[in-house]
Hints:
The chain is an alpha+beta fold.
Amino acid sequence: MERIRITFEKTGAMRYTSHLDLQKVWIRALLRAKLPLAYTQGFHPTPKIAYAWPLPLGWGTQGELMDIWLDDPDGKEVDAKTFICDVNRCMPAGLKILEIEKLPYSDPALTIIIQSAVYLITFPDRINQDVLNSKIDALMQQETIERERRGKIYDMKPLVENWTVLPDPDSGAVLKVQMAARDSAMGRPDELAAALGYDPFTVNIVRLKYLLKLS
């Protein structure tokens, strides 16, 4: 059995595909590409696929991760270029494999090794780079940044690990932010946008990449 880590992007209209529907799209594409998928055991076997953290509806991604397991009785080596081309031909517009990596079968799960995620936040109205810098600096100088999630108050400040304001020709400036992405500490860029005074449903959010725990 062979384990493959896939890095992919989800853009355009695919941003509005739910995580459950995305799983169906992936299984359909992998089967159409005639890959020898490994299956789980039990009464209802399903392809053995492990996803990273689900992406909220409407968010894009340029570096999403998922692991799949292949069960090839012939023991053929997976050719990366052929794999990517075969699967991408079966994908809908907006979903595309960028690269793959072969991993040891027993490597830790993605949700265990992911430590942080990097996001790009674009705001609904054009904003000056200096103004955005002042807003984020003022927010992060507070002792705590209290937000509510699922009826509970928490401090968001420790979850914001790094940030940079970048110039943008269309919107004036965008915010690139690194936030914790662990099961016990999950930073949400939409909640950061809300703390900056923006309606989180009006900002555009793209997950650029994950940062993994070093082995």
